[in-house]
Specification:
CATH superfamily: Transferase(Phosphotransferase) domain 1
CATH architecture: Orthogonal Bundle
Number of helices: 7
Largest sheet: 3 strands, antiparallel
Order of helices and strands: EHHEEEHHEEEEHHH
Shape: globular
Structural class: alpha+beta
Oligomer: single chain
Distance between the termini: 20 Å
CATH class: Mainly Alpha
CATH topology: Transferase(Phosphotransferase), domain 1
Length: about 230
Amino acid sequence: MEDPLAKKPSAQVRGKSKKAKRVSAVSPLEEGEELTDTGTKDGRIFNEQNFLQRAAKPLSVDKWIKRTKVDFLGIPSCVGFGLHADTHRFLILPSMGQTLLSILEDRGTLSEKVVLHIACRILDVLKFIHSSEYVHGDINAENVYIKSEGQPQVSLAGYSHAFRYCPGGQHVEYRQASRIPHEGAVEYISVDSHKGAGKCGPTIVVCSANIFLNRFSVPVLEKNAVSQFIGLL
């Protein structure tokens, strides 16, 4: 993969987008650690922790890599988690590099080759989580990470909106006007999510991938390149 950071050696790694007030009793956050001011079991950090522990266990990821014969699967493992004073929940994730959003802000455009490579790597992650009966629900440039040291690696993070859409192989009922409309990054989520029925699985992937290509502000892609990518969906 062409390194999108190659021409920007001075680019600084930016932290994850989720931030919260820090209290004096909490020690400084380690790299990759997230902090939120909720201790309930229905918060976003808890939802992400639940997904990582249930569907993204390192052993499950390794088995999937061997079975599908991919060289890398960009899904983070949960290094640690906990509660501080029963009010602040935190997760510790490994360093995944720089967000795609920060790279786009620094460079403005990416080459066709890089765009297609990133998209294909994200599709690998989506295939894995869909096979585990989950959808991501919030694919956007802030949740895509690129690590350029050595062989460039693309990771998809931000599972706070992950949802088990097909428990036991039974697809959840499609229901509009629920209590959870517009969840996720507004410019990326599917029409179904805007209608309050964001747990519809594949339609999210197709819509997100379509916007994903256009959002990068790349030069006009060759028709055959786009066709090759869409053929992977």
